[in-house]
Amino acid sequence: MFTGIVRAIGCIEALNGRDGDVELVVGSGGLDLATAAVGDSICVAGACLTITRIQEGAFAADVSRETLSRTTLGSLAVGSRVNLEPALRAGDPLGGHYVTGHVDGLATVLEVREDARSWRVVFEVPVELARYVASKGSVTVDGVSLTINEVEGRRFGVNLIPHTREVTTLGDLAPGTAVNLEVDVIARYVERLNAATA
Question: Mean pLDDT over residues 98-103, rounded?
């Protein structure tokens, strides 16, 4: 479980083929790995991965074909920047919202424009995920917890304050960019409960 509060921006150091899967080696970008251990979960660009190896200033994680095909991790290259967040520990502050790291699909950036000191960003989501996106609800984009401003059909808008643009990769967004999207897990459970009682 994560919060969507990014702790560091890492950099892809290597992508090693492993019989159809990929071992991802990620530079920690200043994220303290002193308390990390093999087997720990870590959120990489919004996807929950398992640390398989730790080396000086970096960690490795295996990425399955399923994850490669359903997230932007399959399009990463050496040098790509990624948002990093270690797993939530008991007693940690919950500054964002509950994030599982299970990417629901890809959203596409439609528009980026200045809005005072913020950026206003409009995304388009796959039709099957649109029903989970609600005004003033939460959404996770590339591992970043965001508040939705408005929703229209398959589109939703957010504001990115200067701090968010500086400490996450969302400052790199441009029209046409694909991003990992995780909808609010509570919305999914509510839908499932409603379906069970219908």
Answer: 94
Alpha helices in the chain (DSSP H): 65-70, 162-167, 185-197
The per-residue pLDDT for range 149-198, each reduced to its tens digit, is: 999 999 999 999 999 999 999 999 999 999 999 998 888 778 777 877 76
Q: Which two tokens stand for residue 192?
A: 């499932």
CA distances from 105 to 46, 92, 169 (A): 11, 28, 18
Q: How far apart are CA 133 and CA 115, in angstroms?
A: 22
Mean pLDDT score of the chain, rounded to an integer?
Answer: 94
The pLDDT tens digits of the residues spanning 130-162 come to: 999 999 999 999 999 999 999 999 999 999 999
Average pLDDT estimate for 14-19:
94
Q: What's the token pair of residue 189? A: 């459970």
Q: Which of 175, 187, 169, 152 is nearest to 84 (CA)?
A: 169
For residues 44, 112, 109, 171, the Cα torsion angle rounded to the nearest 10 degrees is: -10
Given the structure tokens 């897990």, which residue do they identify? 185
Residue 59's nearest CA partner among 19, 12, 9 is 12
First to last CA, the chain: 30
What letter would DSSP give residue 96?
Answer: S
